[in-house]
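Morning run. Coffee first, then this:
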Amino acid sequence: MNATWLLGLCLLAAPAQDAPAGQEHVLVWKNAWLHAAPKDSAPSFRELGFADRARADHPEELRVFLLLGVKGAWAEIETVRDRELAHCQETLFDLADYRLRLFVRTRDLAPVLAAPVELRYEDGTALRLKPGIPALLQYPEADSPHRLAHDGLRFAVRLPPGSVGQSYRPAGRFAYRCEDRLRTVESRLRFDGSNQVESGRIRLCVEDVKPERTGVALTLHTPCAEMRLRADPPPPKTSLFTLRGAGGISREGSGPWLELARGSRVLWPDGSQAGTVRETIWLRPDRIEAGERPCVTKTLLASRRDAEHPDRGSLKLCFRPQDLKRREPFDGSKCGLVNKAATVSTGKPLVKGSLSRQRVHRIVRAQLGRVRACYQCALEEQPGLRGELRVRFVVRPEGDVSHADVRSSGLGNPALELCVLDVVRSLRFPPCGGGIMEVESTFRFRTD
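And here it is:
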């Protein structure tokens, strides 16, 4: 990175000028054009097509990118895979498997909370906020409150000077556990007297709710906010709470896959370098477009809501033919009991979304019998096989799994990995309500 880029990075990164390059992140509007080079004539794409003037009406429509540098009117960014679930906003998970270098106009970067904030009020309410939450000015005036949006919540608050910038360094998320007794609430939530929190149906733990004569005191936990709020009492003969439903499975067909190994080159359609593959990924053969070089068209999930311009949320990524290897998964239903001592276990997953770790863990664990059947098939060919497999998957708001891939594997058995991915893709979860949910689960395979 040259000196000009470094100067731009220091000017943009508001709170931490001594932050190492590569640690700063930015929030980019989903309607921003992402370019292959820092010029308007370069190939480009975007997720959504709403007008720039309407951005204030879409405060959640943002993506996290790694900031590589700034030069003039352009910011150089890179796609992010949020393996540790450290960010408050969503990454461009459709492209998380690829390390793509892109360029965006600096005017398309959203202001963001760049430092931790803790606010306490006289009525007993309080806010604790992590860096990475978008923070838009509510009014054009410089002393205007900021309008924050996070995890389905919107609220206006006066923030301390210097706490908002154009980039931030992720500081992790709040660690919180509760019994698996999640409920949802629909009510008017307030802090600091009359300041209102706009929300749809939000999730609460029973132990965080304290009914009082004049209302309800509650603590609301999200990945990047802890909020002590007050809720108006419910109308007569109605309940403040409703229980969430359960999850199950939905059957999907399996078949051959194409393996694209870690480090493989990713190309633009003209053959120029676009980036590399982060970890080994699997592609359906029927999704590959034949030609001089095999390509796949990625339609970004958010763009599917843009009926007026559906093509603007698509981009074509290509690969070298020699990098694609054909693999066949096991059919677990056709394998017998090869090793009675063979076991499969899974710990509580990392979850970024509206369901608790306990709920997700219970749904995944209910399908371990099918994963064990995959393991029995692998043991027919490799009797001493054992190790860990870490899988990441994305759940749509409707509850079905839209994407699953291997984050890391100590198995060295692609057929077993594919079989497990087929099981994961068939999982069915309760509707996520506020948006997509990202999950990372680890499966442990043992023979003793």
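The first helix runs from residue 3 to 12. Good start to the day.
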